[in-house]
Specification:
Helices cover about 35% and strands about 25% of the residues. The protein is an alpha/beta fold. The strands form 2 sheets. It has a 6-stranded mixed sheet with strand order 5-6-8-9-10-7. A 5-stranded mixed sheet has the order 1-4-3-2-11, sandwiched between helices. The model has no long low-confidence stretch (mean pLDDT about 95).
């Protein structure tokens, strides 16, 4: 299977029509679309360390959730960290494919995986009109917010979580992996008593009790990284002979 063929397969499985209008993803870097794909490195982010690992260990493709190129590059100047990675990868013959908000929205993507890890049922999409990429579902048994926070830590591997207690039991839970401040009102309107995301802005955290909504922020990385396993599965579905492995791209530590 070639680079172009692998991308075409993944593009069918994770359609670009599901992406938010502001997003930028897809085939980010492609030195040779006809190159054979034997090894794929899957990571949440294309950090410098991930790029160097791919080059050093002979991977043909990096497959990521967060886009390698999100904002337009004005020049391929190695003084710019993103441009430097693009240059290094192009020269080494490594392609990069990124699937961002469409992977949040697609069935079986970031947010479905998060609801499954939490054991939610009656799951449906929620979000602003045209961008219903989040999910909302029900816990089998209502629990206290501290107990739910412990569940989130077990399910995501997060070392710690932020919580805001609105004085309600946790039952109907909205989830949106990554950065979720913009969807708080949509979660409340959808009927959630509790909203879980990766990161939430200070004003959103402060206002939540007055709006009667419990909040949990478990870290951007931890709420999205589980999707990397699913990306590996899709690569193997495309071609079982391709070696696909995940690598931890997290650069954030809690001290």
């Amino acid at each position: 299977m070639t680079v172009r063929e692998l991308y075409a397969f993944l593009n069918r499985k994770i359609p670009s029509a599901l992406s938010c209008d502001w997003d930028n993803d897809g085939l980010m870097c492609c030195p040779n679309e006809n190159a054979p794909v034997r090894r794929v490195l899957v990571a949440l982010d294309v950090t410098a360390a991930v790029a160097e690992k791919a080059i050093r260990e002979g991977y043909d493709v990096i497959l990521s959730h967060h886009p390698l190129i999100f904002r337009p590059l004005r020049a391929l100047d190695p003084a710019d960290p993103v441009a430097k990675k693009v240059i290094r990868l192009l020269c080494a013959g490594v392609s990069v494919m990124s699937f961002h908000t469409r992977l949040d929205a697609v069935e079986g993507g970031v947010n479905d995986i998060l609801t499954q890890a939490l054991g939610l049922t009656e799951v449906i999409p929620f979000g602003p009109e045209g961008e219903a990429i989040g999910r909302i579902g029900t816990l089998s048994t209502p629990v206290s917010l501290p107990d739910f926070a412990a569940l989130v830590k077990r399910a995501t591997g997060a070392e710690c979580v932020q919580t805001v207690d609105a004085g309600r039991l946790v039952s109907r839970v909205a989830v949106l992996g990554g950065s979720g401040s913009g969807d708080v009102e949509a979660a409340r309107r959808a009927g959630a008593d509790t909203y879980l995301s990766g990161e939430l802005k200070h004003d959103v955290l402060m206002d939540a009790p007055e709006k009667g909504l419990n909040l949990v922020a478990a870290g951007h990385f931890y709420t999205e990284d589980p999707v990397c396993k699913r990306l590996c599965e899709l690569v193997r579905e495309a071609d079982p002979t391709i070696e696909a492995i995940t690598t931890n791209s997290n650069t954030v530590a809690f001290l």
